[in-house]
Design goal:
The structure holds two protein chains of two kinds. By secondary structure, chain A is an alpha+beta fold. Chain A has helices at 2-9, 11-76, 157-207, 223-273, 277-308, 319-336, 355-372, 428-439, and strands at residues 85-90, 96-99, 109-114, 117-124, 135-143, 149-155, 315-318, 340-345, 350-353, 378-386, 389-396, 442-447, 452-458. Chain A folds into three domains: 12-161, Beta-Lactamase (2-Layer Sandwich); 223-308, Orthogonal Bundle (Helix Hairpins), CATH 1.10.287; 313-458, Histidine kinase-like ATPase, C-terminal domain (Heat Shock Protein 90, 2-Layer Sandwich), CATH 3.30.565. Chain A is built from eight helices and 13 strands. In chain A, helix 2 (11-76) packs antiparallel against helix 3 (157-207) and helix 6 (319-336) runs parallel beside helix 7. The chains are: A alpha+beta, B alpha/beta.
């Protein structure tokens, strides 16, 4: 079901839903308009028919008097003639003279009173002779000279029925409109989402470092196909740029290192030619300075390369072994400083990456921990699994890094005031940062009270793309 | 021994040539790829030092062609490109060692010496001995003056490497690359600490030192008499 949940959240589905609502709304308005008009029309027709009849009765009365009127009414209510008319003629005493209504209805509601005529609505349960047994009646009550009252009506149950039918059809119509709209939106967004999903997947693979990936065409020429095409072109461009960057950095490495190399070579020749020991020592120092410069330079290049390292070339590595080797390299150094050097390794831990870069990252962190921990302190290295992630943690009891500098220490060539006097280029953590970024790791610095704790979280090997 | 240096940078080439000559090698220099290839195919050399980036024919292509002619002369690549991938590419192309510029002359000499002495003796070596120091690779046993010396696995590998290159200068970078398989520079010189540990075990209890420090270059395992 999460798929459907995701589907509902898509823009396409929401748009489809919005359009469905708008469409259903306008259909509704149209239906209401039709309904009201039909209603009014039906009512008017009934009223017009009644009025015509009343008029003709009036004329009959004027021409032939009461007897003629009674005859005319009786003709209308002849049981052999089907009629939907309802008639009642009473005297001034309200006693029935003739009509198909047995008595004066007592439950009628009055509407507007106009001089000698009155519109009424009532229902009847029982009727004399012809006509339906029950009826909803709309009628005109008319006063004739001599106190006679004439009621002429029509059973409007049929038109009521028609109205209910109409209303029901309209409701069903709107229901269908909404249902079709939602279903259409669902299908439509699912097809769109499938294509967007393919684009997203490809982009993810590209972000993981496989720049050779391209979005497959769908064979259509719609906006998504055009978007895919643009993304592909952009990727071509990025790939070209990346290649260009690599070439430039290769060339810079070559072009700048060569003169530095010559400088170093000349200094070495000078050292071997020098006779004066003082001069020799000075030249030796100059060589060391040149070496420092070169090492900084190659560290910068290395960082640039680490940042651009592509996950395509990554392997699944046993992080436990790497940590063991690094610990092995630094243990004697720690022991010389009388530092308690503890290592906890879970050898089932894996990580995906460039083994040399990962090793250097861990070595740089260990180097720092040992370097900044005072004699007699302790350094603790740990590799363990947390869910499917591999976590490397190194904590020391050194001077630590104030929280406000946690970001800053990863900047290139940055060195804390307190560490300016100790050896180092200020590039160790920059390399760590570059590897963290290119390998998709998470890095956290925290206070070990006292000291520093660095946590590196490696993503699940299975999730970091490419088969294990 | 004759060494062929193929290097387009004349200053660097001059420095290498001079250094090698001082160390007793006979040096031929080619300043471009084509000339270098011609020499490599026509003259017998003990070692070839080849720059990876050359005008015309590049270093990798030269070595590939030399190898295609069944010439097994050890090749040491010089390159400003120090990435692991570059190194792997170089070794795949038929190189035997890879040295990143800039380098100290001592480093180059140590590596050339290691290359020229390599492969002599032939067969799988299971027992090494230098002076009164003996190392049994299969039994992982070290004896000096008939006395058992107990080493950690890493110390054992370190000593084994030093003994395989006994009498030669071995640089810190060579140790890091071959004993630890690391192709980066640790910020602190940790190798010195490991060497001093080893010394504590193989030298200190005995009357003579066998593990020597070569100033400005590295270390050398050699009995002092």
């Amino acid at each position: 079901m999460p798929r459907i949940g995701r589907l509902i959240k898509t823009t396409t589905f929401r748009l489809a839903l919005l359009y469905t609502a708008l469409f259903a709304g306008s259909v509704g308005v149209l239906f209401i308009f039709v309904f009201i008009n039909t209603n009014i029309f039906a009512e008017r027709q009934v009223e017009a028919a009644i009025q015509t009849e009343v008029q003709s009765f009036q004329e009959t009365y004027q021409r032939t008097g009461l007897t003629g009127l009674i005859q005319a009414i009786n003709r209308r209510i002849d049981p052999n003639v089907r009629t939907d008319g309802i008639y009642l003629l009473t005297g001034a005493d309200q006693v029935r003279i003739t009509g198909n209504l047995l008595s004066w209805p007592n439950n009628f509601t009055r509407e507007d009173t106009v001089a000698d005529e009155l519109w009424v609505n009532f229902t009847i349960v029982d009727m004399q002779q012809a006509g339906p047994d029950t009826a909803d009646v709309r009628a005109l009550l008319f006063f004739i000279q001599g106190g006679y009252q004439l009621l002429v009506g029509r059973d409007i149950r049929d038109s009521r029925e028609f109205r209910t039918q109409l209303l029901r059809s309209l409701n069903i119509g709107i229901g269908f409109t909404v249902a079709l709209g939602v279903l259409g939106g669902f299908l439509f967004s699912r097809s769109i989402m499938g294509r967007v999903e393919r684009i997203t997947q490809t982009c993810r693979r590209i972000m993981r470092g496989d720049l050779s990936q391209r979005i497959e065409g769908s064979g259509t020429e719609d906006e998504l196909a055009r978007l895919s095409e643009s993304v592909n072109e952009m990727l071509d461009q990025i790939e070209r740029l990346m290649r260009g960057l690599r070439e430039v950095s290769d060339n810079v490495a070559h072009d700048l290192r060569t003169p530095l190399n010559r400088l170093r070579a000349r200094l070495e020749v000078a050292v071997s030619n020098a006779v004066d020991p003082k001069e020799k020592a000075e030249l030796q120092e100059a060589i060391e300075e040149a070496d420092g410069l070169l090492s900084t330079f190659s560290s910068l290049l290395r960082i640039a390369r680490a940042e651009a390292s592509l996950k395509r070339s990554f392997d699944v590595l046993s992080l436990g072994l790497i940590v063991e080797n690094v610990a092995d390299l630094y243990r004697p150094l720690a022991e010389d400083k009388d530092i308690a050097f503890n290592v906890d390794i879970d050898f089932s831990t894996n990580a995906r990456g460039d083994s040399n870069l990962i090793a250097q990252t861990l070595a740089n962190l260990t180097d720092n921990a040992v370097k900044y921990t005072p004699d007699g302190g302790s350094v603790h290295l740990q590799v363990c699994r947390d869910d499917n992630k591999t976590v490397f943690e190194i904590s020391d009891t050194g001077s630590g890094i104030p929280p406000e500098l946690h970001e800053k220490v990863f900047e290139r060539l940055y060195r804390m005031e307190s560490s300016r006097t100790s050896p180092g280029s200020g590039l160790g953590l920059s390399l760590v940062d570059a590897v963290v970024k290119s390998h998709g790791l998470k890095l956290k610095l925290s206070d070990n009270a006292p000291g520093l704790k660095v946590t590196l979280i490696f993503p699940d090997v299975a999730e970091s793309g490419l088969p294990a | 021994m004759r060494v062929l240096v193929i290097e387009d940078d004349l200053t660097a080439a001059g420095f290498v040539t001079k250094g090698l000559q001082e160390a007793g090698y006979v040096v031929d220099h080619a300043e471009d790829g084509q000339k270098g290839l011609d020499l490599a195919l026509s003259e017998p050399y003990g070692v070839m030092v080849v720059d990876r980036m050359l005008p015309g024919l590049n270093g990798m292509a030269i070595v590939q062609q030399v190898r295609e002619q069944d010439i097994g002369t050890p090749v040491l690549f010089l390159s400003a490109l120090g990435d692991v991938e570059d190194r792997v590419d170089g070794l795949k192309a038929g190189g035997d060692d890879y040295l990143v510029k800039p380098f100290a002359m001592a480093e180059l000499l140590a590596r050339i010496e290691a290359l020229t002495r390599r492969g002599k003796g032939g067969g799988e070596v299971t027992h090494l001995s230098v002076g009164d120091l003996e190392l049994d690779i299969l039994a992982r046993k070290v004896m000096r003056q008939g006395q058992r010396v107990y080493l950690h696995p890493r110390e054992f590998r370190l000593l084994e490497y030093l003994m395989r290159h006994a009498g030669q200068v071995v640089t810190r970078t060579m140790l890091l690359e071959n004993v630890w398989e690391y192709h980066f520079d640790p910020q602190t010189n940790v190798i010195d600490v490991h060497i001093s540990r080893l010394r504590q075990k193989i030298d200190k209890p005995f009357d003579s030192a066998i593990l020597q420090t070569v100033r400005g270059a590295g270390y050398k395992l050699e009995p002092t008499d």
